[in-house]
Amino acid sequence: MTLHTNQFLRLATCIALALALFSGCAGGSGVKLSDAALAGNPSVMWEDGQKAVDTGEALLSRGEQRLATGHRQVREGQDKITAANQRVAQARMDYQSAAVTIGSSTTPKELAAETKRLKAIGKRWEDAIADIRDGNSLVEKGKKSLDRGQAEVREGRTLMETGSTLMRNAQRALLGDKPLPPKSQRL
Length: 187
What we know:
Blueprint: H1 3-24, H2 35-38, H3 42-101, H4 108-175
Helix pairs in contact: 1-4, 3-4
């Protein structure tokens, strides 16, 4: 191959890497290839590749943390729903038990006690229903955290792969070897 063909291949590979970097990382990671890297300057390609790897590692770490938070939120929400459902069932049984004796009061004092007892059961029942709503909200929040965390992990891995390829191509350019195509273009 001639020197001109090598430069053309290097430029084409860098452009393909840039496209892969920009299309695979639409989440705004802030990593951009410089003009010198796109022109095939090995030292700048290495620096840009290292920046992409570093950004990818940070994004991967943040995504993994977000995944852990999401899993915790879903688990806590489900636990809250389970406990609240048990309290609803207990309040329903308490009401049914109290309903059997309701109406047998013979004095205002006994009537006040029945009313107080029914209000307490109703309050426990309402609180349990509110906890079910809170648990559902926590599960939804956890699912959103999981989705965002998975996207960050994917983007981080893509950045790390792209940066690594760019660094390898910089090394290959220094040695006069043909650059590697992006992984998406390899057979």
